[in-house]
Amino acid sequence: VAFLLFPQATDRYPLPERVFIQPWGGRIRRGPSDDTMRVVDGLDKAPYDPPLSTPPYRGPVAPPAEPGPGGGFDHLPLGSRQFMQAHLFGCTRLSLNVWEAYLGRAVRWFDAETYPTLELTPLVNWPNAQSGPGFLEMGIVENEQGQLRPYCLNLDVVAHEVGHAMLFSQLGVPAPGRLSAQFLAFHEGIADIGTLLTALQFDSVVEIVLEETGGNLYARNEVNRIAELSSSEQIRIADNTVTMQDVAAISLAADGTWRDAAGLDRNAHGLAEPLTGALFDFFVDLFQDGLVSRGLIPPDGDARGWTRQEVDRSIARLDAAFRWNLRRFEPAFRSAVRDARDGVGLCIGAALEFLDADDFSFDAFAGAMVRVAGPLVGHRARNALIEDFTWRGIKPAHAPLRTEPLPARPRYVASAPLVVQLRAAACCMPGRPAPHGSGLELDRIIRKEHRAPS
Ligand SMILES: [Zn+2]
Prior knowledge:
This protein is α+β, with helices and mostly antiparallel strands and 454 residues long. 40% of the residues lie in helices and 9% in strands.
C-alpha cells in the first residue's frame, strides 16, 4: 500500500518518499486503519493520562484520510491533516512490520483484551510523544529555528514509541515491586535501536550514512552522523563510549523517581547508554564482518595492540581506503549494511523470548543475545558480541535453556523488503562481484577501543 513518508525528519529529506508498506495488519482502509490500529484525529486533544483518561477518544475529530483510486494514501496534499494522519499510520505500521519481521511473528498488543486496536493520534497539545495502554499519540515541538515540527511527521519518534508498545507486548509489565531501573532503561535502549533498524529500511538512509561515513562506520566521529540524521532530541543513538561504571550513580527510587548521585540529573535514557552503545558496536561488527566476507576489506588483524597515536596516524589512510572502495563497490557496502541491520534485529527478536520482566537485568539480556547469536549470525560475530558487552561492563549471564529449538526465522527483510521505494529501482548500480585479493591497502579495522576522540 503506497504512502508518502519522510525517511528522517531533517533538512536532508525536504520531500517525502513514496513507499509501499506491506499490509501485515490486514487490509488498510480509510482512517487510515487496519485490524490492529486506527487513526483517530482528535481536535484540540489533550494527552492521555492513564488511568485518569484512556481511549477511546470521544471528542470531535478531523475528517479521516480516504484512500486514493489505487487504494493507497500517497495522493494527500502535504500539510493537510489527512497527510499527517496517513504519515503517522504509515510510520507506525512500518516500524511494527520491522519488529514483526525480526520477531518472526505478529505482535499482539499487551492489553489487547481491553484495547484490541491501537488508537493513533497525530496531534495533541503537548511538546512530547507517548505510548500507553491502547494508544500512541504525537505532540508538536518548536525547533531552534522557531519552526513547528509535529512528531507525527518524524519516523524516529513514532518508531521509538512503537518500540515501547512492542516490548510491552513481548515482555509485559513487571509484577508489583519487581520493576527495576534496568528494565526501564532497556525499554528506552531497544526503542532507540528500533528507530535505527526502521530508518535503515530506506535505501536513501543507507546511502546517506555510507556517503557521510565513507563506509567506515568507526572513522573519527563520523558515525555519529547516523544520530545527526535524527533531529529529534528523543533520539540518542547510539555510538558512545559509556560503560556501566559511568552510569553506576543512576538509580530508581521506590517512589518511581530517578536519582543521580553524580548530580547529572540522568534517568532511564542515561542508564540505557551502555546497552545501546554495545548494540551499536555489534551492528558495526556485523557490518565489518560483512565487508570481510565480501572481500572488501581483509580480516581483522590484531588491532588491539594499536596505540591511540598509531590509530590517529592511520585514520587518514583508512578513510581514503574506505572511500576508494565505497565508490567502486557501493552495492556491496549497501548490502553489508542491510545484513548487519537484520543481524542485530533478528538477534534482539530471538533474545526477547528468554527474558522475564520480573527478573530483568542487562546481564540477562546480554546472555540471551549471546545464546541466540551463534545460530543467527555465526560464531565469529557471537564472540565479537561478547566482547562488546564485556567492554561496557555488561556480563552476559547464562540464559535459561530452551525446551524447544529456536524457531526458523524467515528472512522477511531480504526476501520481501518492508519498504519498497520507487526511486530504488532507478538508483541501483549494476551489481558487481565482490573482489578477492583486490590489492586493497587497508590492512586493519579500527576497533572501538581506538576510536579517535570526537
Ligand atoms: Zn521512550
